[in-house]
Write a structure and sequence with these properties.
alpha/beta, 14 helices, 40% helix, globular, homotetramer, nine-stranded mixed beta sheet
């Protein structure tokens, strides 16, 4: 059978439901929804191997925040969204007072839909050197360092190896990796942010699967923050044809249409900039006590 | 009936064929194919109103060059392709010795698939000021000026009005406008260049129809050079669903999937850079006598 | 005698003072200082030909705002500075309710110290098309269009001719041109903004004198806004040597040191970004009634 | 005494000569000149502690190549210059067949005169992953990986620590670091390339001295390649005033003029691009057997 691939746990759950018998119960998985600052937050918890096998994802917590309000540029949506995101990041991290954090931006800045990681890095407050050299002034902040890992073709080094080398040197208490993802549904593109405490397999969304970046690899907790920015064109084609009533689809035929093609919003450049800023600010609010969006504006300007 | 839109005359002809009775003859349109330096060149001539009505395009010549060999980076493909393009541009322009030319790059450089025009402008040799100020040194070249018209949202000025203002001042003998186009078929994206002696309606590919840029508007001959860089996702969806055997498609339903979405190659950044260079060099070779690709490299470096 | 050149009227006045007898009175020139929102504002008015000859500048008003507080990133300095600048722009423009304005960014965006014009253009609210197409929503704003004129080498067209062509088409009531300037004194680099109601001669600061952009050329009032971003290295060398007591300086010798060299701050990239934003916001506040810095943030984001 | 600082060994030697008695001999230092492909090559060898103390540089070989011909865009100068540079790099590296190399670009890409390192990285062929994954195709090349270390303010990590972490992971046989330097003389700015087998202290040219990147730090041989792109404005001022006959200069006074100012060529953007390409190609030619400039063009395009 042609495997339907998605980076999003909420979609993996939908896919399971579509394929399963109506009566079957999804075991080993719990999910719940809530509202946070007006943003819908869905948590999917994969509790054990049974759940992991069903959804084809590692055991762990996956939190999805729907950010339509941000994209529609509602009043105050940016600050409310950054706070909602910050709140979920905090819950996953469980930071202690003196913890240090390494934030890693994955992906290729030269390719717009893949630039979420590097652009988030630019919106993250870098404080490690300030705390160490000017403790009187910056001692109340946590030590945050930032790494943009580049892509294999421009470095010759696997991202996972690169991050491991730096993490072993810096010995941060936590790593946060930020990356672009693939979704199955156009409606989710640039409209959701997923947090996970399982780490990440970079490039899994675009078919270049790489070594995992997670606690097993790095030896410290790894939080992944991802945004779906593309749908694979062949995936979309198959889904649409199915919905249009073409029952006997040969997925290999489908991949002739758009095997190297991606579907993105016309506004992808603006969307990626907006969302990268949101994630960066959400991280900053979560990592430092008693700072505001205005403080971050000032620090980064 | 839902109008199937395309910027390419070869596709308009295909669409007509799909919808017409098998026996019907397409009147008022002639087409022919040839090989030029190993590149396939198709010419569609719309001869009269009957042809114009059938293909929904103005009377004129439309030349399509297939550039797969360039994209696959075959040896020497760039020089051969630039020469093939130059040869077709020359036939449309019919330049006299002392003619001057204004080259206009349409589109938004900040949006990758829309950046063909501005990027071509950077690959075009600007000589007007050199010929006028240093005639001893540059007198053998034609006077070429270059305009990047920007987009309405960043100027407040319609491209057509902007170009008309500058053209009335400079009074060039010819205008060449370069723009990104939309295609219906994934296989043509970043794989063809269309030349037309009819001018252009900018943005027609992405649904923001604007004032035409043609001889009627500007008062001088206008050659358009266009490259399809996107397929509208709704168009693609409808086509695919149809092919998959879903006969009764409601196009309005389809546009729910991807109304604001576009389909592009994963390699769009590289593709747009390569093709913009090809077009710029093709223009340079056509506008100046006795120059080589190496001369252009030197001039532009 | 070696002409000491400066784009700033306040410096021209200083130079005159250095060279004149102590008793001589500078006739035909009035100047005054004031404080605006905590920023020092100096106005030099050249009243007649006698003053124009003495300072080597056209008759008109020249206003200099010292922006050290902005560069030092004092609290609230940006908003206070933009308001102070807006207030002076308003006095020079004397706008009527329905006036339209064309804002022109001069200079080369690819050369950091020359990028003030193009970068200011990006911080200017473009409203002409909105007011005309959506009068219900935007009817209370003035019609503002924006032009980035490019540089001769990349267009083949003189900026003055280019702007004249567009101004004749759009027929704005006022033109505002923004450009980088040269100063004689390091202390003024990126620390002052000069407004003038005399228009501008672009490139005068860096030795490539071009056609003037002023009321005579364009047929409508032209306000110039300029920022000194470089000191010519030869000028600096001569000044410094003089101060160091080397009385008999041969300026031609001096120009051997740095004839093609410029002096800029190490922080020039940040400085140019900050100041371009200040000027753009100052223009926006002056051109539209009842808008705030927050409104502009929202519009431009 | 006010220390006269320079990154270039040839200048350190000149400074020593200016300050020493005419009769004194510079001990512990040997130097020689030669021509290579029409480029002047000067080698200064610091042989022992006496020489190191005199020139204020570590013991080692310093090779300066004068590249005026490149900047003046003479015919074929690029290829000849890249070959001359490659030849000197080869002599310093003494590569074995299976050696691997890590190339590091130091500096801040966002600040033009500091961008030589990151821009050279983009002109370096990255082969490590290709050789390892496709040995049949790329097995004849050496394994080259590339690192752009970023700057402290955007990472929170010292470049030396960062490079050490990656070098310990990759275990290359050689490290090449590329950086912008400061010179004392305008005539050398963007006109010379210095190679040294001593490693480098990054940022030494602009007053932000950092931890050394050399064999002691990294545990493997480190070649440094540097280009002077700026003169410190205060240094220049003092030099010029001295030459103009102002004998009693107080250097602290002088630093009031331009303490935060740098002197660069007007054409710095073009200069830095050209030289970064030259260095990248010189490295490529030195690291791989039997490749040509055309091969590199193809690989990097």
């Amino acid at each position: 059978m042609w495997s339907k691939r998605t980076d999003l746990a909420v979609e993996a759950k939908e896919l399971w439901r579509e394929n399963a018998d109506k009566q079957t119960e999804l075991k080993g998985v719990k999910s719940r929804e809530k509202d946070s600052n007006g943003f819908k937050v869905t948590t999917v918890e994969i509790l054990n191997d049974e759940g992991a096998h069903a959804l084809n994802k590692p055991v762990g917590s996956y939190i999805t925040i729907e950010i339509d309000r941000l994209v529609q540029r509602e009043d105050n949506a940016f600050t409310l969204g950054a706070e909602a995101l910050s709140s979920e990041i905090s819950k996953l991290l469980k930071l202690k007072e003196s913890d240090s954090v390494l934030v890693v931006g994955l992906g290729n800045e030269a390719i717009t839909p893949d630039a979420v990681g590097p652009k988030t890095a630019k919106n993250t407050m870098v404080t490690r050197h300030l705390v160490e050299k000017m403790p009187d002034m910056f001692g109340s902040m946590r030590r945050v360092s930032v790494l943009v890992s580049g892509v294999l073709g421009t470095t010759g080094i696997e991202s996972a190896d690169f991050i491991k080398a730096v993490a072993e040197k810096l010995k941060p208490d936590h790593v946060i990796v930020v990356d672009a993802l693939a979704s199955r549904k156009l409606a989710r593109i640039c409209r959701t942010v997923q947090l996970a405490d399982t780490g990440i397999v970079p490039g899994s969304g675009v078919g270049n699967s790489r070594a995992a970046i997670n606690r097993e690899k790095l030896g410290m907790p790894v939080i992944a923050i991802g945004v779906p920015t593309v749908v694979d064109a062949a995936t979309l084609a198959a889904d649409l044809a199915e919905q249009a009533g073409a029952k006997d689809i040969n997925p290999e035929d489908m991949s002739n249409y758009g095997g190297d093609m991606i579907v993105t919003p016309k506004e992808i450049d603006t969307n990626v900039s907006d969302i990268s800023k949101l994630i960066g600010y959400g991280i900053n609010l979560a990592l430092h006590n008693n700072i505001s969006v205005e403080d971050i504006n000032m620090f980064l300007s």
